[in-house]
Amino acid sequence: MKLVIAIVQPSRLEAVKEALTEVEVFRLTVMDCQGFGRQKGQTEVYRGHEFTVNLLRKVQLQIAVNEDFVEPTIDAIVKGARSSDKGEIGDGKIFVVPMDDCIRIRTGERGPEAI
Fold first, then answer.
1. Could you write out the three-class secondary structure of 40-93?
2. What tens digit of pLDDT does each residue of 52-100 get?
3. How many CB atoms lie within 10 A of CB 47?
4. How far apart are CA 75 and CA 20, in angstroms?
5. Does residue 97 sit in helix, strand or coil?
6. What pLDDT sits at residue 43?
7. Rounded distance, CA 91 to CA 37, Å?
8. Which one of 19, 24, 99, 104 is CB 3.0 to 4.6 Å from 109, fit for a cystine?
């Protein structure tokens, strides 16, 4: 079992969800978040004064998957999150971390069956 954490642009969320549905990944958690990487924020003008916005709005998806679904999930996120064929700075990141256990609260099931 793995936990796939993806950080993508909010405008690409619907495309990512559609791509995940195509590979039969239906369960995910979505959270608003802020951060910056190579973009290093943006410079904006407000009432004639220039200031830098260091943190950019992003969306974080958390998806628990069994081993068979790890690569299809990653491929679907990349397909949905890229802003162009080659991709651009700010398209996001995907982290894959091992998951020791999963427990379905309703039934008490554990492990891959609980996902």
1. CCEEEEECCEEEEECCEEEEEEEEEECHHHHHHHHHHHHHHHCCCCCCCCCCEE
2. 777 889 999 999 999 999 999 999 999 999 998 888 888 999 999 999 9
3. 4
4. 9
5. strand
6. 67
7. 10
8. 104
Q: How far is CA 2 from CA 7, 39, 52, 59, 69, in A?
A: 16, 29, 37, 20, 9
Q: For the whole model, what pTM was predicted?
A: 0.85
Judged against a pLDDT cut of 80, whether residue 24 lies above it is answered with yes
Q: What tokens does 85 get?
A: 């064929």
In this structure, are residues 90 and 9 in contact, taking their beta carbons and an 8 Å threshold? yes
What pLDDT was estimated at residue 36?
78
> What pairing do the DSSP bridges indicate for beta strands 42-46 and 49-53?
antiparallel
| Residue tagged 């080659």 (tokens) | 86
Q: Are strands 56-65 and 92-98 parallel, antiparallel or unpaired?
A: unpaired
Q: Looking up tokens 């405008």, which residue turns up?
A: 11
